[in-house]
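New to this. Explain the following:
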Amino acid sequence: MAIVQVTIVPLGTESTSVGAYVASVVNVLQDAQEDIRYELTPMSTIIEGELDDLLAVIRRMHEVPFENGAMRVSTSITIDDRRDKKGTMEQKMRSVTDKLK
């Protein structure tokens, strides 16, 4: 199981606002047939699942700004792919929270 942070930035648009683009990208996540979980944050989206599934979803997400008029898209991806045990978003957060006590 992998956890991926993805940030998709449309460039060459008529406005500095990106909320409509973000909403369209979230639609891809909501409609995904792959077995994924995601969490939207103010600056990026965190997705967990099998790496091949995540990369397929990210590829579709990357296309959304183009489909909505962007002339250029910058997509940044950070992959945490742990193979010694199953890691989840909750497990990672719990690990830090437990250490804060």
